[in-house]
Amino acid sequence: MNPGKWKSNVEAHPSQSPKSASTKHTLADLRSAPVDGIRHLVLSEGLDRFPEEIFDHSETLEILDLSGNRLHSLPDSFARLSKLRIAFFSANDFETFPEILGRCPSLEMVGFKSNRIALVPEDALPERLRWLILTDNLLHALPASLGNRPRLQKLMLAGNCLESLPDLSRCGNLELARLSANRLPFLPDSLLELPRLSWLAFSGNPFCRPHHPDSRSISWSDLALEEKIGEGASGVVFRAIWHAPAGSQEVALKVFKGGVTSDGRTSDEEAATLAVGTHPHLVPILGRLEGHPDGLEGLVLELIPAEFRTLARPPSFESCTRDVYPAESRPSRQAAQNIAKGMSSLLEHIHEHGVCHGDLYAHNILVNDGGHALLGDFGAAGFLDDLPRAQAQAVIEIERRALRTLESELLG
User: Fold this and answer.
1) Which of 371, 352, 365 is nearest to 402 (CA)?
2) 102-142 pLDDT, tens per residue?
3) Fewer CB within 10 Å of terminal CB in the chain, N or C?
């Protein structure tokens, strides 16, 4: 495996933001010499109060990132930022989703990952909402108004305490939903019937318990770590030498960080990765890590040759749910056909093993020039066996919709 090429955590910061003046500023910069025409402002320095100086750029500001501060509220004048389309407040101290955001006329994407939000008021969601991130908070419920946001495409709710969902049957544009690591007693049928839903994560709820298949254990003491070769939302990957009974070999070691990512719990990812078995289009798993000095879990995998590269970049602010394909690295027609055929075969294999991937995207696929493809990242995977048969079949159809999207991107 060459996991340094797998996606990183792009939940709050997709790979391709709109071209703008996005240099990170300081509060001192804004106070001493305001810069005219700021479109993209990043400000993180332990702020416990919203900086009024930001309003000096209300005529131009489109993207505001105040993540990593100590904010707990927004001023009633926040709606003066009439051009603001994207706002991030991750890793702050909010306990209530600010109601003023519902009065922001242009706001489409809102991120409050890793706060302490327990309440979203009924009128707090922007009318033009397209992408909502509430990962890793304390929510038990969401307002009914969420079901009246017809432009909603992406909904990130993993790592809360949700016991129910509002009626989302009118959210016909919803394409991606992350519901993992909550307290949902069942999957709503109305959600599974949405016509465009293609990427769904639901592990770590009472109706979906992880299965733990038997697997070889590889001791930490038999591994000699070399350099770090990658890091994503769920873990860190190292090149290592495994001193196996049959002889030493070079491997990749993925050590899970634990906790909740944008997709779900890392323990569920490990269980799903082991459950799908072997297939020509999966990175071969050599065993489960045991005996880590800090008690962390991990997997030992084959090291993939350097000729493999990531098929695409994760979605951008603009594309929302669609990967970004660099023109210079698009596969040939024959390679694209090989990739599509391989992923179709693999998806059928995964489903036969009672697993859904939940994140069948080009940015999770490694390919070589000939179009041999390897799918990775089971962070959004879930188990089908505990679902009612009709729901399991509906989830499989949702995955096939993701496959058709991938095929259209490759061959369209």
Assistant:
1) 365
2) 999 999 999 999 999 999 999 999 999 999 999 999 999 99
3) C
DSSP 260-328: B-SS-BHHHHHHHHHHT---TTBPPEEEEEE--TT---EEEEEPPPTT-EES-BPP-TTTSSS-B--GG
Q: Which residue has the tokens 């591994």?
A: 223
- Cβ atoms 271, 212 nearer than 8 A: yes
Among 287, 324, 303, 314, CA closest to 252: 303
| Digit-coded pLDDT (tens) for 221-272 | 999 999 998 887 788 999 999 998 888 999 999 998 877 888 888 889 999 9
Count of residues in the chain:
412
Looking from the CA of 90 toward its CB, the CA atoms found within 13 Å total 20
Neighbours of 382 (CB within 10 A): 28
Cβ–Cβ contacts within 10 Å for residue 245, how many?
A: 5
CB 252 within 8 A of CB 237: yes
**Which strands, in side-by-side order, build the sheet including 40-42?**
40-42, 63-65, 86-88, 109-111, 131-133, 154-156, 176-178, 199-201
Nearest to 26 by CA among 11, 7, 46: 46
Please, what are the domains in the chain?
Answer: 217-302 (3.30.200.20), 309-411 (1.10.510.10)
pLDDT in tens, 273-282: 999 999 999 9
Q: What are phi and psi of 264, to 5 degrees?
A: 155, -160
In this structure, the strands spanning 235-244 and 247-256 are: antiparallel
Q: What predicted TM-score, i.e. pTM, was given to this entire model?
A: 0.90
User: pLDDT tens for residues 168-208?
Assistant: 999 999 999 999 999 999 999 999 999 999 999 999 999 98
- For the stretch 40-81, pLDDT in tens is 999 999 999 999 999 988 999 999 999 999 999 999 999 999
> Tokens in use for 133?
């991130």
